[in-house]
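#lab-general

N.A. 3:47 PM
ok so I finally got the sequence cleaned up, no stray characters, all 412 residues accounted for. can someone with queue access submit it? mine expired

B.Y. 3:52 PM
send it over

N.A. 3:53 PM
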Amino acid sequence: MGRRRPLGRQFGWLWASYAVSAYGSGLGFGALPLIAVLVLHVGPAEVSALSAVGPAVGALLAVPLAPWVEFRRKRPVMVAADLVRFAAMASIPLAYACGVLGFGQLFAVSAVVAAAKIAFGAASGAYLKALVRPDDLLVANARFESTNWSSIAVGPPLGGAAIGVFGPVSTVLADAGSYLLSALGLAAIRDREEAPQPRSEGRTGSLLDGWRHLFGDPGLRALYLNNLLVSGLIMATEPVLAVLLLRQLHFPAWQYGLAFAAPCLGGLVGSRLARRVVARYGRAWVFRTVGTLRAIWLIGLVFVRPGVVGLVTVMAVELAIIVNMSLFTPVLATYRLERTPQHLVARTLTAWSIGQQAAIAVLTALGGLLADLTGPRTTLAVAGLLALGTPLLLPRREPAPPHPPALLDSRA
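B.Y. 4:20 PM
back already:
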């Protein structure tokens, strides 16, 4: 395959900044619900609202940010998003130390961080497309993907240990610091980013241009709808599976953590294979075959039993999902950037993230309601059966590039 080309010092700073914030978020994974339970002693309804409704509100807040991000230089937007997340997260240990921490503050922080994360993702995607060569996009996205999964594998166990030693807000403080370090890393990039073209006056539809592009492109439309369902169904099973494992099957807490942390190492495998698999089998094969394999294993969670066999079952299912997901995701991210004109990247990525967050929130809420009415196993069975149908939304072949002029050119 030849030697891998270096992606440059500027990409190195971008990757390092992403890694710092990813590992900080890994340490702080689940910290807000944990603080709500341990410090504020709230009930299940409030915890569910914090986990689902807070990010959904953040997604709504991100809608008007899309044109703002699109028509500005992207690196300052990323720095600003990191600083906003730093200030929001740092307010929690400060309020805790002063004895004034309340549930409303946790909810507001959850929403603000979610909105800033979407803005950061939109800006970083557009920045990445302009920063690296088109044929290096898959390698770059695979590196981000591997970093993401390694942070999830390492961060939560270390975060749990830190909470036990230093207290419930320690991981929030570490998460806040990681955003500050990320902002400093991005500020260290020395480039001459071109200013975006000015926004056309009187363009009232700019807020919706991202969705128009996604639904106007046959390939992106199919992958978008498929991704909404797959990610929503997978995430909706997490709280239901927690109830099944911890409350009904009486798994120890350390086994529960191990069941989710260890399989994340499979993300390193899948992301490293992405470039080779595309080179050998083609991108259409990845979308069709790997896209199917990342969804069909979810039904296996229905068969979890107590003891070591049950633990191995959960880990095997999660590993199969994560390996295929980590291979599929960078290929999808690269395809999405390639098929999106530069002047629409931020709005398209924002629309993608908002739709995904909304799907997760809705399906998580419905899953919780179904679990209350029928039980965790029934809910897992329904989610698994629905996931088996998601490959029908995948494109059978890679569509041809859209005909010029580009779809939905907002400057027209």
